[in-house]
Design goal:
It is a single chain. Strands 1-5-4-3-2 form a five-stranded mixed sheet. The protein has two helices and five strands; from the N terminus they run βααββββ. The two termini are 26 Å apart. By secondary structure, it is α+β, with helices and mostly antiparallel strands. The protein is globular and about 40 Å long.
Length: 104
């Protein structure tokens, strides 16, 4: 079984995005986004190296993968050699990525 760690900033991002979507698009869209995020995490648990390596980001070995059905949102994560996954952030993907804080 794959070990999964969700960093505190990932959980804060999740809450922020759910609040935003609920306010701007409604509860149904927010719920669909949450379900899609959880399905994407499950997919990454089975294929952890799907994501694109992001050499321009710190720390090293960060990958990104789009939330299934919501391609403008990116999951930032690390896939360790021991099989563990560390979820760092989930953010709307049209930002200045090198400026994104990933080491909290």
């Amino acid at each position: 079984m794959t070990a999964v760690l969700k960093r505190p900033q990932f959980l804060l991002d999740l809450a922020e995005e759910l609040t935003y979507l609920n306010e701007k698009a409604g509860a149904n869209v927010a719920a669909r986004w949450y379900d899609a995020l959880m399905a994407t995490i499950e997919e990454l648990k089975h294929q952890p190296f799907l994501g694109r390596e992001r050499d321009e980001l710190t720390p090293k070995n960060v990958r990104t993968w789009r939330v299934k059905g919501f391609p403008r949102w990116l999951i930032f994560y690390q896939a360790r050699e021991d099989g563990a996954l560390i979820f760092l952030r989930v953010r709307y993907g049209t930002m200045n990525l090198p400026m994104l804080e990933l080491e909290s």
